[in-house]
Structure formats: structure tokens, C-alpha cells
Amino acid sequence: MKTVTTVKDLRAFLRPLRDRRIGLVPTMGYLHEGHVSLIRKAREECDVVVLSVFVNPLQFGPGEDYERYPRDLERDAKIAEQAGVDFLFAPSVEEMYPQTPLTKVTVSRLTDRLCGASRPGHFDGVATVVTKLFHIVEPDRAYFGMKDAQQVAVVEQMVRDLHFPVTVVPCPTVREKDGLAVSSRNVYLSEEERKQATVLSAGLREVAEKVKRGEMTRASQAIEYLKRRISSKPLARIDYVDVLAYPELTPVEELKGRRVIVAVAVRFGSTRLIDNTILDEKEETPCSAR
Ligand code: AMP
């Protein structure tokens, strides 16, 4: 594995490899099993795997955790190499933003709800940095986790709208044994917060089961159920609970015959956790494992 910190060097390394299939896994580092699952998928499907590690200041709002976001490039390099990465691209902020950018990429409508409503400007930051990474790496395939399902919808829309010659590959959410979605931010949680945080995945799983059994047929019932279930944990403060058509992210009420996302964002102290499940009532079984 080669660690590369400049755009120029990465382009030079990739130039002779352009006839191979190049896979990109964009991350903010502090790698965990979720990231590793994306790398493994890229390794299976591609000849060359590029992992980017960049904590993108553009996608953090004022007062968010940009400064304290966990960083450990040495540890990331070991994990990346073991997982089969060929190029670890770890640019500095100055390398990615040598001057104050006057250009940004905005995906409208999909970004005015869920995390987009709670974090104004967040998805502009995401769409802009993903665009830059797509131009720098020119990957054939790019791997994103369904843990951030709205991000997948936004990036897929952007790729279609702007004719990026890349296939977006959504990958299932990796979870801890007790169901908590693996996240770099989980390290912020106190022991008690960590225990109570299992309510997100447990609640989502219960909703998926109820819908599957036909006991829950409407979005409002799922929202009510989750709000009550999550509020039963004293340390949990709900940011949002919502059910929307996926990937359109439009409002729905009747769940039957639809593909929907049930999405939650909950604060435990200063830590904001998100999780979701996709219910596909178009198919025989809900894709709750996604
Ligand atoms: P991040 O470093 O948090 O920006 O995440 C980088 C990529 O890894 C994104 O596409 C995430 O959706 C994905 N990811 C993060 N956590 C998980 C997880 N638990 N399971 C699968 N993918 C994940």
C-alpha cells in the first residue's frame, strides 16, 4: 500500500492504471468494521482500491465536532493495508482547499429533510468533496455505506444529474453484536450512553418486524412507536424520527407497496447518532439488514 498526500502524486500513480477498474472508498478515517466492509467489497470488485481519509471541514457546521473528530492516520494505515487498500489518499485541508472555494455542489430537495434539516449546509459539503474526490481519482466504482442512506441518495442523484462516469455501490450497515451501528463517533459515548444507544437499532428492528407481520401499516404508527421507544431512555434526546419513500425522500403514509426508509437521529449528551432501516414492502421480505 502507498500512502499519498497530494493530488498530483495520486494522479501520477493512477495514470498508468487507467485501463484497470478503480474503486474508491471515501471516508473521514478512524477506520472501523463499517469502513473495512466497504474496502473488502471494493477489493472484490476492483483491480485498484483507493481509500481516502479526509475529515472534510466543509461538511461540519459551526459548533459541530470538526475539531474533536477522532483522527489516527497511523492506525488507519495499518487497517487499510490489511483490508487490501492499494492507495491511501490522506490529503491535508490545504491540499484539498488551497484557497477559499467559491464553487460548491448543491443537491436540492433531497437535502432539505432528515440530516439536511438538522445540519444546514452539511450535504453541500459532502457533495462538493465527493465531486472533488471523483475528479481526483476518477473511479469506476465508489463505495458508500447505507448507514448514511441519505448520503447515498444524494450522491446517486448527483452522479445522475452531472453524468459522473462512476457506479455508486451502496453497502449494508455493519453493526456491533448488540445492534448498535458501528461509527467513528461511538468513541464519544459514556458507558451508560453506549448502553442506552442500543435503543436505536432495537426500535428500528421492532418496527421492521411489526411491518413485516402486518401489525404496522402506516408511517405515522412507526414514527409514534419509535418516538415512545427512544424517549423511554432517559439520556436520549430525539433530533428526528421520520419515514420517507426511499430514495426519493418524499413523505409517505401507507407503507404497503413501497420502499421506505425509517430514519432516526438521536443525541446522547453531545454525541449525535443516526441509524435507519429500509423496508421494502414491494418485495417478499423487508431488507432490514441493509
Ligand atoms: P465516515 O468516515 O463516517 O464519513 O464514513 C465513510 C463511509 O463509511 C460512508 O460511506 C459511510 O456510510 C460508511 N460507513 C460508516 N459507518 C458504517 C457502518 N457501520 N456500516 C457500513 N458503512 C459505514
TrEMBL record:
One of its GO terms (biological process) is pantothenate biosynthetic process. This is Pantothenate synthetase. Transmembrane segments: none annotated. Keywords: ATP-binding, Cytoplasm, Ligase, Nucleotide-binding, Pantothenate biosynthesis. The reaction proceeds by a bi uni uni bi ping pong mechanism. It is found in: Cytoplasm. ATP binds at residues 28-35, 145-148, 174, 182-185. InterPro entries: Cyt_trans-like (IPR004821), Pantoate_ligase (IPR003721), Pantoate_ligase_C (IPR042176), Rossmann-like_a/b/a_fold (IPR014729). (R)-pantoate binds at residues 59, 151. It catalyses: (R)-pantoate + beta-alanine + ATP = (R)-pantothenate + AMP + diphosphate + H(+). One of its GO terms (molecular function) is pantoate-beta-alanine ligase activity. The active site is at residue 35. GO terms for cellular component: cytosol. It is an enzyme of class 6 (ligase). Beta-alanine binds at residue 59. Homodimer. CDD domains: PanC. Belongs to the pantothenate synthetase family. The gene is panC. Gene3D superfamilies: HUPs (3.40.50.620), Pantoate-beta-alanine ligase, C-terminal domain (3.30.1300.10). Pathway: Cofactor biosynthesis; (R)-pantothenate biosynthesis; (R)-pantothenate from (R)-pantoate and beta-alanine: step 1/1. Its EC number is 6.3.2.1. Catalyzes the condensation of pantoate with beta-alanine in an ATP-dependent reaction via a pantoyl-adenylate intermediate.
